[in-house]
Amino acid sequence: MAMTATGVHHRSYTSELKLRATRAEYVRLALMGVLLVVLPFVLDNYWMSIANTILIAVIGAVGLNILVGYTGQISLGQGGFLAVGAYTSVILSDRMGMPTPLAIAFAVIMTAVVGTFFGLPGLRLKGLYLAIATLASQQIIEFLIRRDIGDFLTGGLGYINVERFGFLGFQVGGRDVFERQWYVILAILAVLSVMAARNLFRTGLGRSFMAVRDQDIAAEAIGVNLTRAKLTAFAVSSGFVGLAGALTAHYSEVVSWEKFTLQVSITYLAMIIVGGLGSIAGSVYGAIFITLLPVVIRNVANAFESAVPFLSNQLPAVQNAIFGLVIILFLIIEPRGLNRLWERIKEYFRFWPFRY
After folding, report:
1. Are 110 and 84 in contact (CB under 8 A)?
2. Spatial CB neighbours of 312, under 8 Å, sequence gap ≥ 6
3. What pLDDT digit, counting tens, does each position of 56-107 carry?
4. C-alpha–C-alpha distance, residues 316 and 246, integer Å
5. pLDDT of the residue at 3
6. In degrees to the nearest 10, what's the CA dihedral of 48, 269, 185, 27?
7. Exposure winner among 52, 164, 219, 234, fewest CB in 10 A?
8. Using an 8 Å Cβ cutoff, are 274 and 64 in contact?
9. Cβ distance 138 to 262 under 8 Å?
10. Cα–Cα dist 226/238, whole Å
């Protein structure tokens, strides 16, 4: 349930249903919009590629947070579901000639169906048992892709080259405009995904997800259909993830199983842990933080290469160590993640000079 700032009173249902209740919230939203518009004019191609990666990660992290943070269903199959979305969209668009946006829409539906199937154990399992069951989905999907029975997926190559994204006469251009054109597409989809997820939890369906997370027995006692709520949560979450997978395929223009390993599942789980479980804004913060973390470490290692050669020589190991350390620190210091830290900062300035 979204918190309301102290002193904010509603005199109508229309006022209560607004996503933003204070002027400060509208100002921050406007600044965020300005930032999204300005970024393509100030970043070079390298940083634009990172921005595009972040936008795809935002969509996937929002989807995973719907399942884990809002419904309390643990999932370690994120990489597998990304793969389902990616391969489905590419096969439909590049081999069967379907328009790419329509292929992406079908990929979302296909991933939702696959996610619902692998969510069936969630009707009987909880916690670590459900985590292992979803881990099995990751391993099964990854195994099927790597085996590629009959060379159906890749034709024996092990990967698929994807045609450049285009629709109704428009096609993404060359290197000079490639990242910026993709940025516009991904920014629109990321904003729509965040808005859809934010509004989902203002509906009865979204509130049933949270009721299942808080206490499933009590939720059933007040009339929540647990079977429908859990399976719908898996379907909705997998749909978002399928969209992220399809966009990953068309943006990178190559699909291979190495992009969808268990490490990807763990990385997405880290995004929502660091950002904040049960928070759409936290999903965005976590996606930005975890995507930028290895970039920052690499730049620091390059800057201190002569003084500390160990950093650049052992960069992958250092990145993994810092990645694990960050997760541990967040779990110990602030389990509710970056979103809670941001809320504390806002509360400090709102109540200053008083402590509370």
Report:
1. yes
2. 301, 302, 305
3. 999 999 999 999 999 988 888 889 999 999 999 999 998 888 999 999 999 9
4. 27
5. 58
6. -80
7. 164
8. no
9. yes
10. 18
Q: Residue 201 — left, alpha, or beta (φ > 0 → left; ψ -120 to 50 → alpha)?
A: alpha
Name the DSSP class of 2: -
CA 219/CA 236 separation, integer angstroms:
20
Beta bridge partners of residue 167, listed in sequence order: 170
Q: Report pLDDT for 240.
A: 95
Q: What are the structure tokens assigned to 114, written together?
A: 């696959």
* Residue 117: pLDDT over 70: yes
d(CA 306, CA 293): 22
pLDDT of the residue at 283: 93
DSSP state of 122: G
DSSP state at residue 92: I
Residues 241, 180: Cα–Cα separation, whole Å:
23
Instruction: Say how far apart CA 227 and CA 110 lie, in whole Å.
Output: 20
Residue positions counted in the chain: 356
* Residue 61 burial (CB count, 10 A): 35
Return the structure tokens found at 132: 């292992």
The pLDDT tens digits for 275-299 are 998 899 999 999 999 999 988 888 8
Please state, in angstroms and rounded to a whole number, the distance separating the CA atoms of residues 175 and 164. 12
